[in-house]
Specification:
With 72 residues, the chain is mainly α. It has helices at 8-21, 26-39, 53-62, 68-71. The longest helix has 14 residues, at 8-21.
Length: 72
């Protein structure tokens, strides 16, 4: 349930750049950034709900969001 969208754009941009500097392809960078921005809506404020990498991986596993690089 969405609580607050503050910081979602910033978190998207940061996660997108994280993907690019870690050699994710463009599609995977966008997918990762979208997940981070979505998770950031779960608490008040721009940073309180930012996920760790482990939390992001758990979220992807829970919703069966596969690694696009493995699909291709």
């Amino acid at each position: 349930k969405v609580v607050d969208t503050t910081g979602c754009g910033d978190s998207f941009h940061g996660a997108f750049l994280f993907g690019l500097i870690n050699n994710y392809n463009l599609y995977d960078s966008i997918r990762t950034a979208s997940m981070v921005a979505a998770l950031n809506t779960l608490d008040l404020g721009g940073r309180s709900a930012l996920p760790t990498l482990n939390e992001l991986q758990d979220f992807a596993a829970k919703y069966k969001i596969s690694n696009v690089q493995e699909e291709r």
